[in-house]
Amino acid sequence: MAMPIFRRIPRKLEEILGDNGTNEFVDFFNDSFAANEENIVELVSNRFDNRLSEELNTFRSEYKTDLADLRAEFKSDLAALRTEVKEDIAELRAEVKEDIAELRAELKEDIAELRAELKEDIAELRAELKGDIEELRTEMNEKISELRTELKGDIAELRIEIHKLISAQTRWMLGAIIALTGIFSIIVKL
Q1: Which has the least CB within 10 A, 1, 68, 91, 105?
Q2: TM segments (predicted)?
Q3: DSSP state of 1
Q4: Number of CB atoms found within 10 A of residue 4's CB
């Protein structure tokens, strides 16, 4: 229930209206103001709803505009970022290609140096091997000469011994033949 707006009215009016009239007059005002209060609340509520709708529409419109601006700005920033990233990637590719080219050049130089060193080492090794082979040949030829000389001496000694043995054998054979001839002549004479 609504709270009464008027509780008391001025005294002169109260004297004119009397107690009953005063109560009825106060009730009338209170009922009128209560009815008006509902109308005023409804009117204020409608005005508030309308104002709120207008503010919301304005806010939505501003929000949509701001969102569209933000999207456009974001797209622009994103496009700029893409461009920057593409440029950075292109620069990085160029740097990597340069680094690879430099590395290839360095590797080629190192390989060429290594080949030259290997050729020198191989040439030195060949020269050393040729020297060692020559020394070995010389040593082998000396050894072969020594062996030939020793073999010649041994063969000469062996020939001398063979000749001595043959001569001794021949003497024995001649002695045996002479002895057998003598024995045979003795046997024949007998």
Answers
A1: 1
A2: 172-188
A3: -
A4: 13
